[in-house]
Design goal:
Blueprint: H1 3-8, E1 13-16, E2 20-22, E3 35-37, H2 38-42, E4 51-55, H3 59-69, H4 79-85, E5 109-113, H5 129-138, E6 142-144, E7 147-153, E8 156-161, E9 164-168, E10 172-175, E11 179-181, H6 186-191, E12 195-198, H7 210-223
Parallel strand pairs: 1-12, 3-10, 4-5, 4-10, 5-6
Antiparallel strand pairs: 2-11, 7-8, 8-9
Helix pairs in contact: 3-5
Length: 224
């Protein structure tokens, strides 16, 4: 849809719930063929190599890392596989129903990298963050903090860590460096004199929150 379609429609109000666009950092080699963003992987299902560096260790970075290390079936949608991975004895033949965890080998070698000095995953949900960290630990995902991104080339992702330059030799670098509001239609609509309201990621892209988006939409609907 284009702005002209909305303008010609004669609407009294336009609510833009157009979401976000992945943020692309300024970095030498960011346009290298090995570079993807998280939508390329999660939405468009583009092929990803065996060795992967994920730039950005927020919620989306963790989601991408988990997606990449799982095999054809994720434990989250396979009850038996889930119980095996978390050491649950469904027959309760052992004390407390506990069994030795059976971890499937990771489908890929993944390195999760962030610039922040804080512990990787520190900003995840208080009640579920430990699950994501443990899952990636089981899959031998390497987690690096305090990294300075230098460049991307045929060798892989070059970083500086504690004053030492290192190269992460990977097949793909996946950018999970946040997102910006998708407001492509807003300026043209405002210039035409239309009343425009923003909802969800189009309003605030940082720390996307479905609960907030639903609340905004409900309140706006109640007002009109």
């Amino acid at each position: 849809m284009e702005a002209k379609d909305l303008i010609s429609g004669g609407f009294d109000e336009v609510f833009l719930a157009t979401g976000i666009v992945p943020r692309t950092p300024e970095l030498e080699g960011i346009d290298h063929p090995m570079v993807m963003n998280y939508l390329d992987v999660l939405r468009d299902k583009k092929a990803v190599g065996q060795r992967v560096a994920v730039m950005g260790a927020g919620g989306i970075g963790f989601d991408v890392a988990e997606y990449l290390v799982h095999g054809k079936t994720s434990p989250s949608i396979d009850k038996i596989q889930f119980m095996k991975e978390w050491g649950v004895d469904l027959k309760v033949s052992s004390a407390g129903g506990l069994a030795k965890a059976e971890i499937e080998p990771a489908a890929r070698e993944v390195t999760l990298v962030q610039r922040k000095k804080t512990k990787v995953g520190a900003g995840l949900g208080k009640t579920t963050g430990w699950i994501h960290r443990t899952t990636l630990k089981h899959k031998d995902v390497q987690m690096i903090n305090k990294a300075q991104y230098l460049k991307i080339d045929d060798q892989g992702l070059h970083i500086e860590l504690d004053g030492e330059v290192k190269v992460l030799e990977v097949d793909n670098v996946i950018i999970c460096a946040g997102q910006d509001p998708q407001r492509e239609l807003q300026d043209a609509l405002l210039e035409s004199g239309m009343n425009v309201q923003l909802i969800g990621g189009a309003d605030k892209a940082a720390e996307l929150d479905a609960k907030r988006a639903i609340k905004q939409a409900t309140e706006l609907a109640a007002v009109i």
